[in-house]
Structure formats: structure tokens, C-alpha cells
Amino acid sequence: MHRQQLIHTWLEKTLPGSPFTLAPASADASFRRYFRASFADGSTRIIMDAPPSHEDCRPYLHVGELFRAAGAHVPEVFAQDLEQGFLLLSDLGSTTYLAALTPDNANALYADALGALAAIQQASRPGVLPEYDRALLLREMMLFPEWYIARHKGITLSDAETAELLQVFEAIIAVNLAEPQVFVHRDFHSRNLMTSSPNPGVLDFQDAVYGPITYDLASLFKDAYIHWEEAQSLDWLVRYWEIGRQLGLPVRADFNDFHRDYEFMGAQRHIKVLGIFARLCHRDGKEAYLKDMPLVMHYLRSACQRYRELRPLLKLLNKLDPVEVQVGYTF
């Protein structure tokens, strides 16, 4: 409530003579929260509340400028107070892709999303965003043994199992780092894309980096919150690859090589996400993320079943969560 009172005071000072009502808009997996201010004339604005003790608004502002210059539809910044951690933003609406997607509109919505992603990637250049380097890729995956295996499952790995897991991590990182590099949103999925005009509205980009070209595709098509049959997601992936080649994006010349990159990138992401979801539950009390774990595990198992380098991880997953495994397409 203290933060909300501060927002009220700040907004009254920022927009004098404009009475408003404030209501929660959304919260995410970090300490950031969002409020919607509604004004007498029917207009609305979004206030990002990012407590400075936990969050830094500057990366959001920096990436927002980069993505806007690239042609992506990101929120406009009307006012900022970095000392208090407040941003006043344009309102991109309240309908996420997750809420809007149906089998009938998926092709059109994903085509728009891929258009926005391609525009961001075309604007890529080194040296303006943090590198998605080996240290970061490994640090993310290490959340899995710490939070998923040890804390969530209550299992202690043997030295041999730990060594085997780290060997798999190194194999994944080797493929990730060999990929062509572009701007990476890092959470380009159905909860962070809004149906808007122009479509989509792109949110939650403050953790963007310069890294593997397939990362955002794995986020989008192996989404933790919505599942599509593999034949469908492969069709979208092929479309992106074909368009990427036409646009001169640094995609692999051979689709099989591109698909393997995508699969290994997905594995890195899903290992991380299982660790993050476990941490959100056990450290932050956000148990809702537990219901999304089975889909993430399904994606990870499927990739591990397919590639020899990942088989030791599949063996470990079968020990942690014994289930029947169904495999899709193999390349």
C-alpha cells in the first residue's frame, strides 16, 4: 500500500488537474508491478512500479528505445522517476496473446509476432546490449539443480550425476554459442505480446541481450503457457526461416541445422525455466507457476529424447519424474 500511495502522489504531481482512478493492471515474475490509471476523458495510462531496491528502470528505457527504433510497438514513455522507480507508459490494452489465441487466429497472430521479431533482429548490432555469454547461459541452467532438483524435488545428486549433468550443460552451451547473434528479447511469448494496433504490442523486454538467433523463437513456439502440436509449431518455424533468409537475417543455410540450434536453445531455456518456476514457488510464494511445469518438462524431454548429447539428462529426468515419454518428429 505504501508504494501505491507514492504512485498516487507522483501521478498527481506529474499530471496536475487530471483526476484519475488507479487499479492493478498486472504483475510479473519479478518485483515489478503495473497499475492502470483511468482518467475522466476515458483515456488510460500504465504506471510501472519498479522498486529501486530490487529493480532498475534504465535497461527498460534503453531497450525500449532500441526496439521502438527498429519498428516494434512498445509502450511510449510519458514520464519517469528513476529515484522512486516509476514510469508512466502508454496503455497497449489488456488482451494478451495468451487470452486471444485460438486455432482460427493463431496463424495471423503469430505472423504478426514474427514480423515484429524479424524487425528487432534486423536492427541488431553488437556492443549495445549485454552479451548472452557462456557465464550467463550456465548461471541460468544452474538454477535447475539448485531449485528444481534440490529444493523442489528434495533430491541430492551423486557426484557422478552432477558431473554428467554439467557435461550436458556444456554440450548445450557449445551449440548455443555457435549460433549467429542478434538482439534477443528473452521472454518473447504469449504473456508478453498484446493484441493491439499495430500488432503486437511488445512488453517485458528489459532483460534483452545480444545472443542466439533461435532463443526468442523457442520462447514463442515452445511457450510455457500455451501448447501447439509440433507439426504446427514446425510449420511456423519453417515460415520464419524462409522469411529470415529473404530478409538477410543470419539464419543457417540448412533448415536441419537451424532446427537443431532451436532445439538446443529450447533445452537451455526449459532447464532454466524449471529452476525459475521452482524458485518462484519456494522462495517467493508464487505457487501458480507449478501448474506450468509439466508443459515445460514435456518440451525438455522431447528434445532430450532426440539428441544423443542430451540423453544423460533424459535419464536424470526419468529418475526425478518417472513418466511415459511420447516423441514427436525427429530430424
UniProtKB/TrEMBL annotation:
<dbReference type="InterPro" id="IPR002575">
    <property type="entry name" value="Aminoglycoside_PTrfase"/>
</dbReference>
<dbReference type="Pfam" id="PF01636">
    <property type="entry name" value="APH"/>
</dbReference>
<keyword id="KW-0067">ATP-binding</keyword>
<protein>
    <submittedName>
        <fullName>Phosphotransferase</fullName>
    </submittedName>
</protein>
<dbReference type="InterPro" id="IPR011009">
    <property type="entry name" value="Kinase-like_dom_sf"/>
</dbReference>
<feature type="domain" description="Aminoglycoside phosphotransferase">
    <location>
        <begin position="22"/>
        <end position="241"/>
    </location>
</feature>
<keyword id="KW-0547">Nucleotide-binding</keyword>
